[in-house]
Amino acid sequence: MNPREKLLAMLKAMVDRLVSPSDVIASTGLPRYEVLAAFHVFEALGIVKRVYSRGNYRLYQLTEEGVKLLKALEKKGDIKIDVEEVSIEAQEGEATISVEA
Length: 101
Prior knowledge:
By secondary structure, the protein is an alpha+beta fold. It has one domain (3-76): Winged helix-like DNA-binding domain superfamily/Winged helix DNA-binding domain (Arc Repressor Mutant, subunit A). It contains 4 helices and 4 strands. The protein has helices at residues 3-12, 21-28, 32-45, 64-75, and strands at residues 48-54, 57-62, 80-85, 95-100. The strands form 2 sheets. A two-stranded antiparallel ribbon has the order 1-2. The protein has a two-stranded antiparallel sheet with strand order 3-4. β1 and β2 (57-62) form a beta hairpin. The longest helix is centred in the middle third of the chain and has 14 residues, at 32-45. The mean pLDDT is 86.
């Protein structure tokens, strides 16, 4: 499975539901370390948002940008990703991401 297919499988596993990384591991069969690493990146880029956290247990939801990324990956064409800084009023280091197919 190539990296694009792995991302697509992970995102598809998150559509219309709350998931833990373990749920994604179980539904995709991908190695735990890859899924956990992807969740860190997804959260940092705003592809998923954490909706529940207790100890090491976390539940995530796909964001609007995550759905856009999923649709772009499904089209199998080139993907353009723009990252823009948020206004000065936002927390330091925050950024927004937009995805186009």
